[in-house]
RNA sequence: GGAGAGGUGGCUGAGUGGUCGAAAGCAGCGGUUUGCUAAACCGUCGUAGGGUCAAAAGCUCUACCGGGGGUUCAAAUCCCCCCCUCUCCGCCA
């Protein structure tokens, strides 16, 4: 959420910045709502003051054992007026709040203007896509042929966009999880968290998933909890409504969780294979830091995610989001796109974003810069390090050989008892 | 699921209708003193939003004692609903 005081004082600037990401800020509506709220506030406070003064007079009269009936009746009428005004004020405040909660974050000046994926800026390419002397297959062919992926049964047991991994396939995924967490915790200074997989509405609001993206989430019938679409939600909410000691910043966490997404509105997209599914696994990286450090921390976080791809010898490129392709709450963000030979293209495997104070304001996460100083909002960042299912796809597609087997990246072999190749296994 | 206790400022913890935004202590901040990685003493010390002001300071007003509603001239305090924590019983991976 944007700072309402900033909006009041810099409406034109805000409108222009938001236009860079394709959002049309309705300046007139904002000013009208803001003015109405202010008028009601002033009037309500004026009457409250009158009542408080009168109440004190009554208290004094009572102490003097004087008659207070007349005075009491006089104030009684004010009380009703206050009640009406308070109702009106509450409504006005709610309307302003609702207006503000659907405004996306202001883009960082570094984010290129643009509204579509094509306007993203390629920053660098790392690793050379392998030359095949045969036509490389996609994972939806390789996986079932090896007997490590079963999509039909996933669809039977649950529905479309669900799947089973089996034997070496399931183990490959488990190895990837340990591999990713070990690097981030042992070498990159992240603290590992195991988190709740369902959260309440307040948490979903804080990260920006509510109120706008309710349809993208899976909801429990009872109680009113949603399954997390990413560990970003529980980890960012770890410090909701807290004041952190500035000396502890930056704080860095990594968490492995399942992620649940309804994928509403993506019906035609990526219908083959397991690239886009309702349930997947991800190792997430989350940081809390001082505002002046956040863009630098974004570079470091991105490089922490890249490290996994480098060790797995997977070719990838880094793309800087244009203003319009960024997530709702992001000010600046990079995508890591891994090379998928089966599809002959780079595909997203990680998204790393700086949310500036957008989530911190919603979540009320502050820090005290110095002992005794006033609390300020932190900046929050997060990124995938990495999406495990997509890493699985990348390994299978990049490691495939003409005979249908898959070579496992060297760095991962210690997590598989030294196994170097996935060979066809008995069907489940 | 059943029974009970409780949620107060950064923390601990008083306060059961009116000079309570809230005692006291700790922590923090400012200072004094002491020849020592500290102690003692003094002072200060919540957040948000209005008004005044060119602005800041200051002054002043309003709200906030888990959340929401109610009673009352007046609510941290009384009533109702919800949430959370703790204890005991039951069930259970």
- Give the number of DSSP strands: 17
Q: Helix share of residues? A: 25-40%
Give the topology string: H per helix, E per strand. Answer: HHHHEHEHEHEEHEHEEEHEEEHEEEHEE
Shape: elongated
Strand content: 15-25%
Write down the Rg: 27 Å
Major sheet characteristics: 8 strands, mixed
Account of the protein in words:
- The structure is a single chain.
- An eight-stranded mixed sheet has the order 1-10-11-12-15-9-8-4. Strands 7-13-14 form a three-stranded mixed sheet.
- It has helices at 4-9, 11-19, 27-63, 69-101, 139-146, 151-157, 168-187, 201-207, 232-236, 294-311, 358-363, 388-398; strands spanning 121-126, 149-150, 164-165, 191-193, 198-199, 226-227, 242-245, 251-260, 279-289, 316-320, 332-340, 345-354, 365-368, 376-377, 379-387, 406-407, 421-422.
- A hairpin with a 7-residue loop joins β13 (365-368) and β14.
- It contains twelve helices and 17 strands.
- The mean pLDDT is 93.
- Helices cover 39% and strands 20% of the residues.
- It has 428 residues and is α+β, with helices and mostly antiparallel strands.
- α3 (27-63) runs antiparallel to α4 (69-101).
Keywords for this entry:
single chain; 428 residues; alpha+beta; three-stranded mixed beta sheet; 12 helices; 39% helix; 20% strand; RNA-binding
